[in-house]
């Protein structure tokens, strides 16, 4: 149920990213700015994940719903996702980079958005299942190593996107 709550809020943020970006993707100068913006946002998220493995913070931890407690995992998933305004920045960065890198049309952007929602459902469900199974025996070091690797992959993707010829 928590995954469904997260997916609903992520879908809303994805739609916001699509509508904001789709309205301006036809201009070359805008594509260059989107490429830079997307690369920076993705790199910052990668860096945030990497330094988080050491207990440091790059991005502020903003919570719009402090003090709200519920026993409902669906509502908690929605609140957790909605309380992180950086989520909209993440999705905007992802869509910006894909539009520029793949030269997506408006229709392609909508299909990419739909695929993003489906992949969010799939991967969050898989992660929830794996996490519930492995939390009893997986050492914190392994979890940190996995997080560090994800951060490196995001930074690599950001650099690759930034330096790719359009």
Automatic annotation (TrEMBL):
Membrane topology category: Multi-pass membrane protein
Q: Which InterPro entries match?
A: LeuE-type (IPR001123)
Keywords, sorted A to Z = Cell membrane, Membrane, Transmembrane, Transmembrane helix
Q: Which GO terms describe its cellular component?
A: plasma membrane
Q: By what name is this protein known?
A: Putative threonine efflux protein
In alphabetical order, the GO MF annotations are: amino acid transmembrane transporter activity
Subcellular location field: Cell membrane
Q: Which residues cross the membrane?
A: 6-25, 32-54, 74-97, 109-131, 137-159
Alphabetized Pfam families for the sequence: LysE
């Amino acid at each position: 149920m928590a995954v469904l709550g997260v997916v609903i809020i992520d879908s809303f943020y994805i739609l916001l990213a699509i509508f904001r970006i789709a309205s301006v993707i036809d201009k070359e100068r805008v594509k260059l700015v989107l490429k830079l913006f997307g690369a920076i946002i993705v790199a910052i998220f990668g860096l945030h994940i990497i330094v988080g493995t050491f207990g440091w913070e790059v991005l502020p931890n903003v919570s719009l719903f402090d003090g709200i407690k519920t026993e409902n995992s669906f509502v908690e998933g929605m609140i957790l996702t909605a309380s992180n305004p950086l989520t909209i920045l993440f999705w905007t960065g992802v869509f910006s980079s894909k539009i520029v890198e793949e030269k997506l049309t408006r229709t392609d952007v909508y299909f990419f958005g739909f695929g993003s929602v489906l992949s969010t459902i799939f991967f969050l469900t898989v992660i929830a299942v794996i996490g519930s199974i492995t939390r009893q025996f997986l050492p914190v070091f392994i979890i940190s190593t996995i997080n560090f690797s994800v951060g490196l992959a995001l930074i690599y993707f950001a650099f690759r996107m930034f330096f790719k010829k359009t």
